[in-house]
Amino acid sequence: MFLQQLINALTIGSLYALTAMGATLIYGILGILDIANAGAYLVGAYVGWYIFHATGSIVLAFIGSMALVGLGGVVLQRTVYSPILAKPRTLSIIPLVAAVGLFTMSSDAVRLICGAGTKAYNLKFPVMVYKFTVFGKKLTIQPAWIMIFVLTAVLLFILWFILNRTKLGLAWRATAEDAEIAGVCGVNTSYAMALSYILGYGFAAAAGIMTGILYNSITPALGEVPSYKMLAIIVLGGLGNPLGTVIAGLLIGIAEVFLSVYFNLPIPKDAIAFVVLIIMLLIKPSGLLGRKNKV
Amino acid sequence: MLEIRDLNVSYGMMEVLHGISLKVEDKELVSVIGPNGAGKSTLIKTIMGIVKPKSGTVTYDGQDLTKMSSFQRAQLGIGYVPEGRRVFGRLSVEDNLKMGAYAVKDKERLKKNISRVYEIFPRLGERSRQLAGTMSGGEQQMLAIGRALMLDPKLLLIDEVSMGLMPIMVNTCFQVIKELNDEGITILVVEQNANKALKVADRGYVLETGNIVLTDTAENLRSNEMVRSAYLG
């Protein structure tokens, strides 16, 4: 039972981590809370659905949706966020309001274009359920969970590799710490911003598709819960810290599953992330791996 | 090599530099001295493209820099040692140096430059894997200079190198600056510590509340009555 719940929790948690990663990467470089990431998650799930049903290939659906949504992110960065941030003395609430607007627009655009009803991925795996017996306990694993684990691990490894083992990643980390000085060192900081959006929106799109496969349904409301839960996760992880986001995502997944299974909580499951966040803020306001205010 | 003409810079409503002109010739070491708040850092930041001027031009090596971004100026070979050091505290010493050479494409040159910086500052070589944020102020200042040298700069801009350092470190830094200039790097230093800055420089400018009030050879400035009473005390 415990092991079964843990597997459930980690599956959900890795989806959370992947969904929130975009917001973390974008906060790391631009210092803004980009709620529109949840729009990328929603649109990604729909674009993936159309590609999958047109071509029959789920691999193409992932690649195509991640690429299109990632590029869309760069377009938004160039046309919306960067111009706002370029104005002198922009209040930090302004890009946030723009992001909320973009997210609302994306939900309604999906509703108008794709219809308000539910769409099913109906992805067929060769085996729909694996049953094991471990330590005398029965254990079920769905292939969709394995896919989520593996794909999340691969994507996060790619992210880790880019950030820690490439020149572009070094430039990203330097820009996140001090964009002005990174520029003076010869970094075109708009590339670091574009990297954040391509990876961030691409990851959100992948998470959207995986959610669609896991629950076998997508609706235009798909992005609503992530749009606020994402905030709890990135703040919990320590704003702008990718590793912190992974840990926070898994932690929220674990907290949600175990608290709702073992305790009869008087609050909805989706509120648990915020309870965890409030406790965290009382203990360590900078988050799990957060640093004190940067200069 | 560097020519600034009629530079006006404002922060919002407040004008900080009022039509400044100055020149740095090839292989020269020029110091700009002046009190806190005179606009020295603003001057250097404008040359580096961090601050945009309201009017006036910055010309380097015959090219107009005025419309270029910071990263393009770095690619032209302008190195910058910022006020307050501003090393990347979460990166290792070596990664800081690699960042300094971001515009350098040649890997051999990158390696050569790293070993050269370690030669100038052996201390950095000993700590190549340490996070820059955990080092002392003096070591961070060495790193900030080293980072700027990674570019093989033709022109080096140095902002308040002495700030917050122990006197012995200040001497080391100015000695290094002098040696770099002897090697052929053109250097512009802005500095509150007028005594040290004028000792190593060929020429100097005195900047007060956004205007250049005096310019001469460093030697003449050191014996100038006004400079002596106001800055050399």
Task: Please give a structural write-up.
The complex is a heterodimer of chains A (295) and B (233). Chain A has helices at 2-30, 37-55, 58-86, 93-114, 143-165, 167-177, 179-184, 189-215, 224-237, 242-262, 272-283; strands at 130-134, 137-141. Chain A has 295 residues and is mostly helical. Chain A has one domain (2-283): Orthogonal Bundle (ABC transporter involved in vitamin B12 uptake, BtuC). Chain B has a domain at 1-77 and 186-233: Rossmann fold (3-Layer(aba) Sandwich), CATH 3.40.50. The A-B interface holds A 88-89, 167, 170-171, 173-174, 177-178, 180-189, 291 and B 12, 48-50, 69-71, 73-75, 80, 82, 86, 88-91, 95, 98-100, 102-103, 147, 151.
Question: What is this entry, summarized?
Answer:
Chain A has 295 residues and is mainly alpha-helical.
Total DSSP helices of chain A: 11
CATH class of the domain at 1-77 and 186-233 in chain B: Alpha Beta
Low-confidence stretches of chain B: none
Radius of gyration of chain B: 17 Å
Work out the strand percent of chain A: under 5%
Strand proportion of chain B: 25-35%
The proportion of residues forming helix of chain A, as a percent range, comes to: over 70%
Indicate the radius of gyration of chain A in whole angstroms.
19 Å
How many β-strands of chain B, per DSSP?
A: 10
Assigned CATH superfamily of the domain at 1-77 and 186-233 in chain B? P-loop containing nucleotide triphosphate hydrolases
As for the number of domains of chain A, it is 1
Q: Biggest sheet of chain A: strands, sense, closure?
A: 2 strands, antiparallel
User: What is the annotated CATH architecture of the domain at 1-77 and 186-233 in chain B?
Assistant: 3-Layer(aba) Sandwich
| SS field, number of helical segments of chain B | 10
Q: What is the number of E strands of chain A?
A: 2
> How would you describe the shape of chain A?
globular
